[in-house]
Structures are given as C-alpha cells and as structure tokens.
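User: Could you go from structure to sequence for me? I need the amino acid at each position, not a summary. Structure tokens:
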C-alpha cells in the first residue's frame, strides 16, 4: 500500500478569469466522479477541493495572475502500483545529499571485508563499476556538481 502525492503547477500566459477557466478544468474531476467543494477566496481566483469515491483528494487553485496549481493525493493498494523489481537500487546519494540515478542493473559481486563493503555493479553505460562502502562517487569520479570526469571500469570477477 502506498500514498501517492502529486503536485502540479502551470503558469498561463495571461491573467485569467476564474469563471471562464475553471469549467474547463472541472471536467477532469467530474470524469473521476469527484465531489466539488468551493471555498471563498475574496476575489482572488478559485479554490476548490474534490473528494473521490475511491478516496482521492484533490485541491485546485486558480490564481488571478495565471498560476494554476493541482495537488492530488491518492491511496493505492499493493496490487495497483507495481514498482520495478530490480536487483540493484538505481538511486544513489551524493556527498552533498542529493540523489542521482544511474543505470546499474546487476549485482556482479558483493563481499564484506574486514575494512569495507565491496560491490561490483554492472551498468550499461559504465560497464562493471567498483563500489566501496556504497560510495558510487569515488568509483565514477563524480565531483560535487555531479559531473563525470571518468568512469571506473573493471573486469568481471568469477
């Protein structure tokens, strides 16, 4: 089970009149049988909340200066959203606490030595990459701006 939370925002090219813009957007929520509740904005656009029969919650905000925001929350059962069943995590933290995605697709070798954890992961882009203590940046030569200087490539271990 998972709670999904999506936030979307759009900037329209010109200031908008809520009375003419909102009806076009409402059809999206009506398709999903969501009940609308309009909230007072004192002439500052439109604010509506929508609740669906399936537990979805949406907040639609149309600002007079052209910004449109949609906030959607929905609950999905385990069988609804299937995540790729990958052997290797594709997301790796950098030393400055950002996440980057690599195409690591296979764990070739893993062992804990007396000094560190040793992994060799396969990548379509880099070949086999040596990972020491789960620090991918050392092996690929990544600086703090996540620019690649060189890719560490190693032969297979049998």
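Assistant: Here is the amino acid at each position, in order:
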């Amino acid at each position: 089970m998972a709670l999904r939370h999506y936030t979307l925002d759009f900037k329209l090219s010109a200031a908008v009149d809520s009375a003419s813009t909102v009806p076009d957007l409402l059809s999206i929520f009506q398709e999903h049988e969501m009940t609308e509740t309009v909230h007072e904005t004192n002439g500052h656009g439109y604010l509506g909340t929508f609740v669906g029969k399936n537990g979805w919650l949406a907040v639609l905000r149309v600002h007079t200066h052209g910004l449109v925001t949609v906030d959607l929350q929905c609950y999905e059962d385990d069988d609804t959203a299937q995540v790729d069943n990958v052997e290797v995590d594709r997301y790796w933290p950098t030393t400055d606490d950002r996440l980057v995605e690599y195409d690591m697709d296979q764990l070739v070798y893993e062992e804990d030595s007396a000094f560190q954890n040793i992994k060799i992961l396969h990548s379509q882009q880099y070949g086999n990459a040596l990972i020491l203590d789960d620090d991918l940046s050392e092996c690929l030569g990544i600086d703090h701006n996540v620019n690649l200087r060189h890719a560490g490539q190693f032969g297979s271990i049998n």
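One structural detail worth keeping in mind: The mean pLDDT is 77.
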